[in-house]
Amino acid sequence: MYAFGENIRVAIIALQMNKLRAALTMLGITIGVASVILLVSAGQGVSAFVTNQFSGIGSNLVIALAQPDKNGKLQPMTMKEVQTLADPLNTQDVAYVMPQMNVSMTAANEGQQMTAQIQGVTPDYPQILNQQIVNGRFFNQMEMAGQERVAVVGQDVVDRLFNGASPVGRNMRIGSVRFQIIGVLSSSSGGFGGGNSTVLVPITTAQARLGGKRNLTGDYQVSFVMLQARDSDSVDAALKQITRSLRTAREVKAGQPDTFLVVSQSSVIGVLTSVIGLFTVFLGVVAGISLLVGGIGVMNIMLVTVTERTREIGLRKAVGAQNRDIVLQFLMEAMALSLIGGALGVLIATGLVGLIGAIATDLPISVQVSSVVLATVISASVGIFFGIYPAQRAAKLNPIEALRYE
């Protein structure tokens, strides 16, 4: 009876005798394993990135925005509704209320221009979104009340319009309106903030000078309303109070669906991570198809190997090898092909993940131990699954006929 170690030795020798064929057979397994690990690692990195983007804001942020009614008609949020939400008698557990008006416009300075995300906000913006001013200051209530043409810009605006020099005190144009820059935001952590291409102006200025829209009653419309609950424990109570206040303000009758949507930051994170997780699984399954192709390649080569080594099989049986010894020998060869191919796939994926991490420094991507373990298990499973049939076929050969095989 052949020992387990002997079968391993014979398997390695058999692979060394046909190096090119073995390498080509392993290629499918290598590509499949590398693809699975790379896509899973990328999915986990994107999920972590999204979570980090939002978690920097705080866990007590709530967003209220319009959504179509049952007839498909959209009733935008208005400043009157903002006043309702800002009334502490209506929303006792809300600490800050900030309407926001978004518009994409061209920002320019001395021949340089870019498309920027213009956001009309209130002085509560830094507090609600946990944003820091690294140069200058943020505009105040007096400037908002006076519809002053002042702006706070993101770092990308500084780099592209002012060549990285301090823009505080200098002017820029938004559309055809001249604004004075009074502050620079820190590099954005993302989330509900506008990012580094943001230009923040008082919402009253945006409404009056940058194309603010009014409804039929003359009330200014807003893109959405950001609210901050007093603390993370007050979020659920704040959601109920906001919903009740908006239903009353919009005269939504009992039993009728809301014409608005109120969501917390945590629920948004949950939805995004779920979507990213499902997409990652889908990509992993697609990448796994190459593993299936690689496994079929392993089976094909092992069948060829059985045919080529028919006389050897007959000789082994003649000197006392049992069927299980023959099965184990060929399974070992199939597993060796798969495991070596899987190990190469892990090395390639690790290198690619490291390269992506070096290029996209903000993306927390890395190869997880669980991914390596999964790749090892998959590789071994592919070798066993696709090696069983060739191994059984070899074991069933009649030793006399095998010895006579030419």
Structure, described:
It is a single chain. This protein has 406 residues and is α+β, with helices and mostly antiparallel strands. The chain contains 13 helices and twelve strands. The chain has helices at 4-17, 19-55, 79-86, 125-129, 141-145, 155-162, 203-209, 235-249, 265-308, 310-318, 323-359, 369-395, 399-404, and strands spanning 61-66, 77-78, 94-109, 112-121, 133-136, 150-153, 171-174, 177-185, 198-202, 221-222, 224-229, 260-264. A six-stranded mixed barrel has the order 3-4-9-6-8-7. Strands 2-10 form a two-stranded antiparallel ribbon. A hairpin with a 2-residue loop joins strand 3 (94-109) and strand 4 (112-121). Helix 11 (323-359) runs antiparallel to helix 12 (369-395). The radius of gyration is 33 Å and the shape is elongated. The chain starts with a helix and ends with a helix. The model has no long low-confidence stretch (mean pLDDT 83).
Rounded to the nearest angstrom, the radius of gyration is 33 Å
Main sheet overview: 6 strands, mixed, barrel
Q: Report the sheet-strand fraction.
A: 15-25%
Shape: elongated
Beta strands, count? 12
Give me the strand/helix succession. HHEEHEEHEHEHEEEHEEHEHHHHH
Mean pLDDT: 83
Q: Oligomeric state of the chains?
A: single chain
Quick summary:
The protein has 406 residues and is of the alpha+beta class. It contains 13 helices and twelve strands.
